[in-house]
Design goal:
- By secondary structure, the chain is an alpha/beta fold.
- It folds into 5 domains: 104 residues, no CATH class; 171 residues, Rossmann fold, CATH 3.40.50; 118 residues, Sandwich (Immunoglobulin-like); 214 residues, Class I glutamine amidotransferase (GATase) domain (Rossmann fold); 57 residues, no CATH class.
- The protein has 13 helices and 34 strands.
- It has a 9-stranded mixed β-sheet, with helices on both faces. The chain has a 6-stranded mixed β-sheet with strand order 5-4-3-6-7-32, sandwiched between helices. A 5-stranded mixed β-sheet has the order 9-15-14-11-12, with no helix packed on it.
- Strand 18, helix 8 and strand 19 form a beta-alpha-beta unit.
Length: 710
């Protein structure tokens, strides 16, 4: 047996001495006073002495036992295999994800309630000898705040009060990985309590499979009861711009964006809202506002907006610009403010630098136009086009330095590249460059695809010899046509006017095909595909003996869009809070531009920003390596409730004994140990002893003649 409140029990045992002292004091001797009738009472007392002594002993025992049993009942004894000797360990896991920022009508956040529940659980630990507390936070990436468990209960309370909400989702897989290490071996009785509202934003069953399933925790785990309400909320889930880079003279679609707002909650009334977009990270600030209406009953609303971007004649090095969009409404329909904001990066440039890798320099007459001439014409149709072209001799390409400073490289003679040249191309792509590859105008066997596949890590299989198409095939958009969003609307009619008479057959993944041969084209399938990020491969060279693409209207916008996209920032348009962002090679630290807080990227794969905003990437020498826009994880803003069975069913895949913790009163959460029946039994015994004490007191108070004294 062990006690949840041992101090109360020992204090009660000490109180047993009170009736004993009273009994001893009442037995002190007094000076006898003789009077006439005394001899009759003395004679009766002698006859009943033994019985009176027994009655007094029973009365004293009843009073002592009554106090001891009451002390034991209040101290809450625990019996069973888990009631071993030594202190107990309580592992608290607090959900401080974006969902915990939900505010109720009084303005109190869910995280405030979580922290109150945690403090109440610590209070019920009673701070007995050897009791310990461990503390984890569940927001991605899950963090061990206090591990292993500490004896300093007051310090645990302070750390709980210091927990702040994040902009990331819950990381339950990370929590399960941290639980075993939160306690030391042979820590005695250990309990863990996961404190969360368990809404749909908790992502139960949605976290990615990281390989082997985590082992079940070696101690019982309980959870707080899931919330049952369905509060309203607005989530700004996307801000899709035309492309990630804006150049002088770009058409208006390049500066257009579409913001997508998703609503949560049981009721969806009509409401007016305001979309605000501002730039961060450069001296000149842009602000755009767009009022719109949230129709009644509509859960998803798309709001188009034109971005008035500053400094479109930015410097040659490229100006990274962060856009922060936010939705505001006066109506009480947004319970979580954090997920109403979204950030993404965009680059403002004056020029795009493209290298054309070919076998000769200069142009020629129309009759002698080769692939490099067609490419140069498509890239620089007039002097005002913001594209700079560098000529590179294919046989002379030998190192990554030959491609330094370029945004894109177009290979028209890949057959002339050496192994060192292909390694340089691979390093160029790894640094964020874009590679556009055309096969050479050679009707014979093609051997360069093998070198390309090895150097770039491409799995696509190519035919050794070109396929002659008779009749010629036309082109049609493939599943990956959306890779060119500014061109996708006109891609079908433009591609339908292009014919292909000869091409290499490529077995590309269907979801990577941008342009395909209509009807299969005698088996060539893909005409333009993206086998890996920032690598574009054509099945035919820009040569009229293979295809009339160079002479068709599609050639110019197609090449323009491919190379202009190459100047966009490396990685995703924005990083999600709680996940490691895509940064340039060599970045070792992120600095939050608004708060100045720092994040060490060398601390391990779990080092990830949990706070939304604009972060600056720094190298080992403190050099600036661009900015990273970290946006809140809008998936965590789903406020819909989950049923108890649904939550437990998902948790029990990794926690077989998961159950809901008992609750009484106003969030009076108790430890998982079941002390109720034992406590009630002790109170019943105490009631019986009270009756016995009353009866014994009445009997002991009677005089020898049978009348009560007093």
């Amino acid at each position: 047996m062990t006690l949840l409140h041992p101090l109360i029990f020992f204090s009660g045992l000490a109180a047993v001495s009170i009736p004993i002292l009273i009994h001893l004091l009442l037995r002190r001797k007094r000076r006898p006073v003789r009077w006439a009738a005394m001899r009759f009472l003395v004679e009766a007392h002698r006859r009943r002495r033994r019985r009176r002594t027994l009655e007094q002993i029973l009365l004293l025992a009843a009073r002592c036992l009554l106090i001891a049993v009451l002390a034991a009942a209040i101290a809450r004894p625990v019996f069973g295999p888990e009631a071993g000797a030594g202190g107990r360990t309580l592992v608290l896991v607090i959900d401080n994800s974006l969902t915990s920022g939900l505010r109720d009508a009084s303005g109190r956040t869910t995280l405030d309630r979580h922290k109150q529940t945690a403090l109440e659980l610590i209070d019920r630990l009673a701070a007995g000898p050897g009791d310990r507390v461990a503390l984890l936070t569940a927001a991605a990436p899950a963090s061990a705040v206090i591990t292993p468990a500490t004896l300093d209960i007051d310090a645990a309370r302070e750390r709980i009060n210091a927990i702040e909400p994040t902009d990331s989702a819950m990381d339950l897989a990370g929590v399960l990985a941290l639980l075993p290490g939160s306690v030391e071996p042979e820590s005695g009785e250990t309990r863990a309590v996961l404190i969360s509202d368990w809404r749909r934003g908790s992502g139960l069953g949605e976290y990615p499979d990281s390989g082997d399933a985590p082992a079940p925790p070696p101690f019982p785990v309980r959870i707080t009861a899931p919330a049952a309400d369905d509060p309203p909320n607005l989530r700004l889930v996307s801000l899709s711009a035309g492309r990630g880079v804006v150049l002088p003279g770009d058409p208006s679609p390049a500066s257009q964006a579409i913001a997508t707002i998703v609503r949560e909650g049981g009721d969806l009334p009509e409401a007016r809202a305001l979309l605000k977009i501002e730039s961060i990270g450069r001296g000149e600030t842009m602000r755009t506002e767009q009022a719109f209406t949230l129709p009644e009953g509509e859960r998803s609303v798309a709001v188009p907006v034109v971005l008035d971007l500053p400094g479109q004649n930015g410097d040659d090095e490229g100006g990274d610009l962060a856009l922060r969009a936010g939705v505001r409404t006066k109506a009480p329909i947004d319970a979580i403010e954090a997920d109403s904001t979204l950030l993404r990066t965009i680059r403002v440039r004056r020029t795009v630098r493209v290298g054309v890798v070919h076998a000769r320099r200069g142009g020629g007459s129309l009759e002698r136009f080769d692939a490099a001439d067609w490419v140069r014409t498509a890239l620089k149709p007039d002097p005002l086009t913001p594209i700079e072209i560098r000529e590179i001799n294919a046989p002379g390409l030998s190192s990554a330095a030959d491609l330094a400073g370029l945004d894109a490289a177009v290979l028209t003679r890949p057959d002339l590249l050496s192994g060192e040249a292909w390694a340089a191309c691979a390093a160029f792509v790894d640094r964020g460059g874009t590679l556009v590859i055309f096969p050479p105008n050679d009707p014979g066997a093609q051997r360069w695809p093998d070198a390309m596949r090895t150097a770039l890590g491409i799995e696509t299989e190519f035919s050794r010899e070109p396929v002659l198409l008779d009749p010629p095939s036309t082109l049609e958009p493939g599943p990956a046509a959306g890779t060119l969003p500014l061109l996708s609307g006109d891609l079908a009619p433009l591609a339908g006017g292009v014919t292909v008479t000869r091409a290499l057959r490529a077995e590309a993944r269907r979801d990577r095909v941008v342009l395909a041969a209509a009807g299969g084209g005698a088996g060539i399938g893909a005409f333009l595909f993206v086998p890996r990020d920032r690598v574009w491969v054509f099945a035919s060279p820009p040569d009229t003996a293979w295809t009339d693409l160079p002479a068709k209207p599609l050639m110019l916008p197609l090449m323009q869009e491919i190379v202009r996209r190459s100047a966009a920032p490396v990685g995703a348009a924005s990083s999600i809070a709680g996940t490691r962002p895509a940064v340039r090679t060599g970045a070792v630290e992120l600095i939050h531009l608004e708060s100045g807080s720092r994040l060490d990227l060398t601390a391990g794969p779990t080092s990830a920003p949990t706070r939304a905003g604009v972060w600056e990437a720094r190298g080992a020498r403190g050099e600036r390596l661009g900015i990273v826009a970290v946006t809140p994880d809008h998936r965590a803003g789903r406020t819909g409730p989950l049923g108890v069975d649904e939550v437990l069913g998902s948790l029990r895949e990794n926690i077989p004994d998961a159950d809901v913790i008992e609750e009484t009163g106003d969030n009076d959460a108790r430890l998982a140990a079941d002390t109720g029946p034992i406590g009630r039994l002790f109170f019943l015994v105490a009631a019986g002893l009270a009756l016995l004490e009353t009866f014994a007191a009445r009997v002991a108070s009677r005089v020898p003649g049978g009348e009560r004294i007093g």
